[in-house]
């Protein structure tokens, strides 16, 4: 009786908000009664195609309202939806298919076909084209099945959403978010964003990413309207904000600049949009959001916590840049032995609570390791500040041990990039017979600037503990990277790194 | 790893909000670090006194910060706190003691002793006086136990709060609210009230009632400050609002009038208080609350749902007076056979979801009956309106069957009291050989008014279905009552009622 699933929430919306618009996408517009009915048909279609409880449904396409209705359909039968990153190569998509073994793949004809063609022929599972018009297309498939609620046995602990992330070994891992996790995260995000009745959100980022998905799910949970943008297009975004009176959107600074540009001459009325302030042009086009979330979009999060673990909005005047935790989690900072470190000291951020993920799909050992002791080990470093607020410092990756002291590269790198002449830094440990390891800084300078290694060492010594300061500084033109993080293995090879505690030398954390 | 208890929330607050004031009460002022430590000591004291998981702790006194810290202490060991209605007679308190069998009773010396004296002598359990100064007083008891977290095995499904309510047979029943229920309800209320960081709430109503307790718990969950008023005193309330910069309070219209009166001459600065508007005096003293909750405090609730089941704030412009359900519940309207009735028809309000109660303490049969089929049967009647919003109509009590049709007295009574000359109405069913029963209205007229029975019958026929209209109208001076509801059994005896379906004749619903 105390259980609640995403399906239950939509069932209630069908009754209490039947005529409220749930989804808008191009010509498509459905209210909650229609969403509930369509998700019933879809759920029955998925079951007929062999998707059982725990079965996987893969979405291969750009943003679409169908991702949301498939999510609700999966919620009704205890299945798992994976909206894949459509920007991936054929090889990457093949990996996802082989890893996920979906019983149903909903795919998109058109520009994405080039990447799909090499794998579609020999791939198992039922493939449904969502934008085709053949006899086997999505709408015919949906219409051919009963509108009755399947009323399958489903638990709120069943995983519902799978998002690939965390490519620890070069291949991504599928983080599983349970029905309850999505609801819990939505309640917290909705409280911080002060979502009210009649909320309309423009899903303007990719739904395969938790940053957009968390807003889409929160909008669904609060009975609001998801306006889906297939891919980001500033002109279309302006048009939809005006036409649908969107109150929220998922926007990064570069996207805001594009919207301001697209709205030169004030062709569109964007005043319904309540968003964090940016430049004067932006602030005068929109309504500045005064909710805690609007006052600061910052915080710390990752896919594995359902989106946001901490909100700067909960500690706006605090010391820590990442604010305070969601009210539905506990956060600790631990050392390598999983002992809690004192406030002010750096440790790995670990967390527990209802919106933490349920592990990685098909990775029992990794899951056991990440969730050891009943706490999710984020793989990120942070610190509890003197006022209880939290600072996220960077990925853990690896640790340097010098003179018996633990030194995290992220902390030294942050100190180095605080110097006005330094534009980038990566820190490695070099074996030393006396100290175990010495800290070595690899830095990139701002164009046209010059600064000596000794000056940089002196600069860091004023900002972090002396034992953490670099013993050597190497100036380079560019720091090699793997994705967003420095390629530490390559840096070790080039600059003599090694001797890490716990055999981390070859770990890309 | 996904579990979360009220104790966990306070454990996190100790880390993230150590220096935030948690409790203010007279000379007492404790921050979250102190609350966490005191609740550890209390939890260890309770265990030493024999309170195990599921054990009961009874509070017999007016409002105090100690109710909140005892709640946290109970949360840490899986025990149940019952803050009893201190206005009860000795006999009523004796019933509570015998029903609850608490291992620990925390009681208050002073004005309440007169009621407690007759039962204290022979009552079992350890009695601790919270405002005495003997060797066995509360503070000495607390201080004598370890400040270490007991770290007992506790589930979020464990009942934590017990509130007596629902005196179906003349004696109250203790509704059990689980740890998770309190957290879920707090997230929803906090979202509707738009509780932000730094929230300060004046607990100005009785903490033995869910209406005040739900705000105290929400304030605790959001890491805010509970300012506890022992009993309502308008002058002290004004002083505390000014001194503590209270943002919220639990106030009914009569209390608002008293505050306005106490603040004639604007002796106090009440501008920190964000509350729903009332008269001009009030509105100019406070800051009018623009949150959804501030726009309408209405809704439908009861102790058994954790407080509020529906919020008018979620359907402000809707047809139904009670708005829409909390996002964390499902609501249905069912007939006597538990079949869902169509929209627009009256049925019993049933509900499920994480903030519904866990049953009545020590009432297995009643609990089974109320929670049959996995839905809580509220015992109240309501209707889903055409736009999906909800109207609460009144207590179910009993049903009249006439010509095969179901007629709920509350609906006919509501129609009758809509007449300008009618001040009160109670409706019974009188056995009839043809129709099964006929509707009989017992009405009280406004002073000095006169209206014929035929006119009243015609009046109701224009407002409700014809088969529901009274066949007979009896004008009386006063309607006999049991508590707030008409004494239907006595009315049956006096005016020939009987023949109710399902043998309801002697049921005071």
UniProtKB/TrEMBL annotation, chains A, B:
UniProt domain AMP-binding enzyme C-terminal: residue ranges: 411-481
InterPro entries: AMP-bd_C (IPR025110), AMP-bd_C_sf (IPR045851), AMP-dep_synth/lig_dom (IPR000873), ANL_N_sf (IPR042099), ATP-dep_AMP-bd_enzyme (IPR050237)
Pfam families found in the cross-reference section: AMP-binding (PF00501), AMP-binding_C (PF13193)
Location of the AMP-dependent synthetase/ligase domain: 14-361
PANTHER family, per the entry: LONG-CHAIN-FATTY-ACID--COA LIGASE, NONRIBOSOMAL PEPTIDE SYNTHASE PES1 (EUROFUNG)-RELATED
Protein known as: AMP-binding protein
Source organism of this protein record: Nocardia jiangxiensis
Lineage of producing organism: Bacteria, Bacillati, Actinomycetota, Actinomycetes, Mycobacteriales
